[in-house]
Predict the structure.
Amino acid sequence: MTQIIFLQQASQQGSALSMFIFLLLLFVIMWLFMVRPQQKRQKELKKFRDSLKEGDRVVTIGGIYGKVVQLKDHKVVLEVAPNVKITFDKSSILRDTSDLPQQ
């Protein structure tokens, strides 16, 4: 009788250990495929925004294409049409359009 209770307790401890290992493995997989790539993209976007200079052609988060005319601390002035300038927050600049075909 005591052997049955001992075996039952041992199997419960093994089950808890295997569940812990499974959850740990699940967390590692989620970090590798979800969190790490997102952090890499954010780091690249921050590097791009910090390297902006006058004359760069960019796209805003809202889809507005323009050319950087002036840079301030956290603001960017874009020329979106001849003699039309709009001020944006630097965090709203999404990407560089120099590699896109010009129309």
